[in-house]
Design brief:
Belongs to the LOG family. The chain has nine helices and seven strands, in the order αβαβααβαβαβααβαβ. The protein has 180 residues and is α/β, with parallel strands linked by helices. It starts with a helix and ends with a strand.
Length: 180
Amino acid sequence: MAAGLELGRAIGSAGLRLVYGGGTKGIMGAVAQGASGAGGQVTGIIPRFLMNKEATEQALSELDDLIVTDNMHQRKHIMFEKSDAFVALPGGIGTVEEIVEIMTWAQLGHHRKPVVFCNINGFWDPMVALLDHMQSEGFIHTSHLVKPLVVDSARAAIEIVLETTADTARTGDAAVIDKM
């Protein structure tokens, strides 16, 4: 939760818009709260069927923008389109599924947007080891397109987003992929 608040505050303080899965509870709620509290704009994108599971109507009404989709595929596509970078905080199977899909799209040449693992307390170490293993076994032939940027803090995640996106990040959007 602390990392979520820190990430949100860093996004807001940097003048970035948070584009995220619309959840107002848990870590993602903390990210949105931190971004909004630091003066940032927040766009939530949530499938209709998750509105009462991952959010409250009151909290959703406080977002700057809310996009309600019919399904998860629409949600991910819109988040991808509206974002200049992707940051993964520690999370569950949904987080892994979404960050792997974004890396797959990068491997296929669909984008060159930075993918950042916010490696709080070494959370993403096993994932990084798995990616290294897949590469060494010959299953990732374009590793330079798949290599996520790994940082140890939420603030460092935004610093590296700003560095790697230079011109577009200062006026663009940052997506946080977590709990979607």
